[in-house]
Write a structure and sequence with these properties.
The chain is mainly α. It contains 7 helices and no strands. About 35% of the residues are buried. The N terminus and C terminus are likely disordered.
């Protein structure tokens, strides 16, 4: 697992109205993925059930980032295109592993190696989030904008979108951003004209 220095961990921002910032949402999902990877390797767990939960959580997380996060990185973050390209490459690698695992039985001999590949990609993804993506978001977006993105990330519309095809983020309805989520992303894009500004 990744061993992040405490200063690299995400610092949750809780909206007084009950919401969460985008950074908090992403960090919480990253923590959950790491916990699922730890559980899937434990002999005390129901490994097939945990693996199923892990694969769905990974697919949903990657789909959410494609729908909500990558457009912001590409349009509103200075140097964000490089971050978006790296994230897209990680997504592609995860999706290839997910496709292979979907076709395997739980006791197939190559399943452990595929899960290890997923762990390595996910660890690199989380490390990149802590060291590059989160600081870039803090610098470019206001607290209110981060809260709006967080709301889009956990919206009922987004969850329904990813639930119908959890392991195929590029297929069917998952390939399109829902209207409500798209509106939130567009609003943040429109208001974030001063790229790279520092907010308090």
């Amino acid at each position: 697992m990744t061993n992040d220095h405490p200063s690299d961990r995400h610092e949750p921002h809780q909206d007084p109205r009950g919401g969460q910032s985008a950074i908090d949402v992403l960090g919480t999902e990253h923590d959950r993925l790491q916990a699922l990877f730890a559980r899937v390797s434990s002999p005390d767990e129901d490994r097939p059930a945990v693996l199923k939960e892990l694969l769905q959580a990974l697919a949903n997380h990657m789909a959410m980032e494609k729908q909500v996060l990558i457009p912001i990185l590409e349009d509103q973050i200075e140097g964000g295109s490089m971050l978006a390209d790296r994230m897209t490459d990680e997504h592609d690698r995860v999706e290839r592993c997910l496709t292979l695992l979907e076709r395997r039985k739980v006791n197939s001999p190559d399943v452990p190696a595929l899960v290890t590949d997923l762990l390595d990609i996910t660890d690199a993804h989380i490390s990149g989030g802590n060291s590059a993506v989160f600081p870039a978001l803090r610098d470019a977006l206001s607290a209110a904008e981060l809260d709006e993105l967080g709301a889009a990330m956990v919206s009922d519309e987004r969850r329904r979108l990813t639930h119908s095809h959890p392991a195929l983020p590029d297929t069917g309805p998952v390939a399109a951003v829902t209207r409500k989520v798209a509106e939130v992303v567009d609003n943040v894009r429109d208001r974030s004209a001063d790229i790279g500004r520092t907010t308090t």
